[in-house]
Amino acid sequence: MSALLTVRGLVKEYPARSRSRDKAPLRAVNGIDLDVERGQTLAIVGESGSGKSTTGRAILRLIEATAGTIMFDGIDIRRLPTRELRALRSRMQIVFQDNGAALDPRWSVGRLLAEPLRRHEQLTRREQSRRIADMLDRVGLDPRHTTRYPHEFSGGQRQRIGIARALMVHPELVVCDEPVSALDVSVQAQVLNLMKDLQDEFGLTYLFISHDLSVVEFMADSVAVMSRGNLVESGPCSDIMTKPQHSYTRALLAAVPVPDPSVYADRAARRALIRSGIEHL
Amino acid sequence: MVAILGVEDLRVRVASDHGTSYPVNGVSFELHRGETLGVVGESGSGKSLTALSIIRLLPTRALSISGGHIHLDGVDMGTLPERDMRAIRGRRIGTIFQEPMTALNPAFTIGFQIAEPLRRHLNLTRRQASSRASELLDMVGVHRAQSVAHSYPHHLSGGMRQRAMIAMAMSCKPDILIADEPTTALDVTTQTQILDLMLDLQADHGTAILLVTHDLGVVAQACSRVIVMRRGEVVEHAGVAELFRAPQHPYTRALLDSMPARNTGRQRIIVPDEGVLGA
């Protein structure tokens, strides 16, 4: 196996909000290392403000990192000139949580899916239509619905459109930022299944950003736990879930709501575990 | 056991250009003193509308209660004038919603907003109410309660705002607390602390809690009984242990089966056929 993505010492700072110039900037991401193997899923898990989304966006250079190196298939992304970066974007795509906001409401589905193709590939109109119809079919939508607009679809269907759009240009790496967090549990299950199927079919590598440990446990091969900009712990998914080393990871695992009332028999022990994990940060 | 709240064949009607439909269609349940009853369902199941009907705060004029009875401690609330309902809301029935930022008024301090029901319902003086507000913030685990009482909602984190909401909802020691997705917007570590807080207060005050949620994990964590709703109807009604051990209705089974937590280690989540879920 080879790493498709290697991140070393990634830092993202924002200037302090305060007017006093000497105040230290806010470190949203504080020098983290990540390795993502080709064809695998690395999940970044953390609570709000942990820096997980910032990390995902910095990797795609949707925001500029302050320091660190990001190597994608041997290419140093941070040093890439804009022009080459743009070309590389066909190999790295992103799926957002709220596709209601990410999809332009005035664009039909056909146009939304055609746009990445126009940008990255020279196709005839006919080839383009065929690719779009194929992809819609592949993500479980009706290929005839290209003339419809995003608002005509349900939340789960919009998420399928977002995935279809990301996959139009056959990327290798897909950053998925809370892709199922806004969905009902039954719809969520369908979208997660779809994402796994597509991963197998296209050999996709996922950077899967989520706050939901049960979703992460289902999806991920390896896990990186973040808190307040720091990488708390990382390793194979099963190790993190069954043998967490860091007290914060233990707190996070204990706090996950589980569909099993017997887990909650010993409330006091659970509380103590969560409290100590949060305090030790 | 005595039911503090009885809902009987509740119907909510929505009239639109496309005709009439019933997002809540014949819902019945009882809430007993000191218990936590979970109302669980997916979006569109009618769980929130059921909760809002109880305090007669349906969000738009297009929605109306078109049938059924709601009894509070034996009194049929349907016959009460709006004036009496105002005396019930906040006094006998406290409410917490998902997003405290929209439920709290951004223009007033936290302390003022907690004091308001105390002055209105319990006739405390301004000074009494404000010192009671600080005590209440302290009770819900807010450090430096005095200074938080003087802050505005946007100064606080989501978890702190939700604690403030709970302080406000519990301020008049209500018989019933209606909590509509109270922890959905919160991080899991905060969520579990807020649920624990609600259960602690319940143990101290004997409050009955109606907990509306989409999350079966939250139900397992906090409820003693549960009703499962789907398309405006109650499809299953059970004790929490039974519900998770032996769900009776195909829809409940489907909901449980589609949770990622129950599919760990599998290649795919067993998604039940669409007929059952009606996605």
Automatic annotation (TrEMBL), chain A:
<comment type="similarity">
    <text>Belongs to the ABC transporter superfamily.</text>
</comment>
<dbReference type="Pfam" id="PF00005">
    <property type="entry name" value="ABC_tran"/>
</dbReference>
<dbReference type="InterPro" id="IPR003593">
    <property type="entry name" value="AAA+_ATPase"/>
</dbReference>
<keyword id="KW-0813">Transport</keyword>
<keyword id="KW-0067">ATP-binding</keyword>
<dbReference type="Pfam" id="PF08352">
    <property type="entry name" value="oligo_HPY"/>
</dbReference>
<dbReference type="InterPro" id="IPR013563">
    <property type="entry name" value="Oligopep_ABC_C"/>
</dbReference>
<feature type="domain" description="ABC transporter">
    <location>
        <begin position="5"/>
        <end position="253"/>
    </location>
</feature>
<dbReference type="InterPro" id="IPR003439">
    <property type="entry name" value="ABC_transporter-like_ATP-bd"/>
</dbReference>
<protein>
    <recommendedName>
        <fullName>ABC transporter domain-containing protein</fullName>
    </recommendedName>
</protein>
<dbReference type="InterPro" id="IPR027417">
    <property type="entry name" value="P-loop_NTPase"/>
</dbReference>
<dbReference type="GO" id="GO:0016887">
    <property type="term" value="F:ATP hydrolysis activity"/>
</dbReference>
<dbReference type="GO" id="GO:0005524">
    <property type="term" value="F:ATP binding"/>
</dbReference>
<dbReference type="InterPro" id="IPR050319">
    <property type="entry name" value="ABC_transp_ATP-bind"/>
</dbReference>
<dbReference type="InterPro" id="IPR017871">
    <property type="entry name" value="ABC_transporter-like_CS"/>
</dbReference>
<keyword id="KW-0547">Nucleotide-binding</keyword>
<dbReference type="GO" id="GO:0055085">
    <property type="term" value="P:transmembrane transport"/>
</dbReference>
<dbReference type="GO" id="GO:0015833">
    <property type="term" value="P:peptide transport"/>
</dbReference>
From TrEMBL, chain B:
<keyword id="KW-0547">Nucleotide-binding</keyword>
<dbReference type="GO" id="GO:0005886">
    <property type="term" value="C:plasma membrane"/>
</dbReference>
<dbReference type="InterPro" id="IPR050388">
    <property type="entry name" value="ABC_Ni/Peptide_Import"/>
</dbReference>
<protein>
    <recommendedName>
        <fullName>ABC transporter domain-containing protein</fullName>
    </recommendedName>
</protein>
<dbReference type="InterPro" id="IPR017871">
    <property type="entry name" value="ABC_transporter-like_CS"/>
</dbReference>
<dbReference type="Pfam" id="PF08352">
    <property type="entry name" value="oligo_HPY"/>
</dbReference>
<dbReference type="InterPro" id="IPR027417">
    <property type="entry name" value="P-loop_NTPase"/>
</dbReference>
<dbReference type="Pfam" id="PF00005">
    <property type="entry name" value="ABC_tran"/>
</dbReference>
<dbReference type="InterPro" id="IPR003593">
    <property type="entry name" value="AAA+_ATPase"/>
</dbReference>
<keyword id="KW-0813">Transport</keyword>
<dbReference type="GO" id="GO:0005524">
    <property type="term" value="F:ATP binding"/>
</dbReference>
<dbReference type="InterPro" id="IPR003439">
    <property type="entry name" value="ABC_transporter-like_ATP-bd"/>
</dbReference>
<keyword id="KW-1003">Cell membrane</keyword>
<keyword id="KW-0067">ATP-binding</keyword>
<dbReference type="InterPro" id="IPR013563">
    <property type="entry name" value="Oligopep_ABC_C"/>
</dbReference>
<keyword id="KW-0472">Membrane</keyword>
<dbReference type="GO" id="GO:0016887">
    <property type="term" value="F:ATP hydrolysis activity"/>
</dbReference>
<comment type="similarity">
    <text>Belongs to the ABC transporter superfamily.</text>
</comment>
<feature type="domain" description="ABC transporter">
    <location>
        <begin position="5"/>
        <end position="256"/>
    </location>
</feature>
<dbReference type="GO" id="GO:0015833">
    <property type="term" value="P:peptide transport"/>
</dbReference>
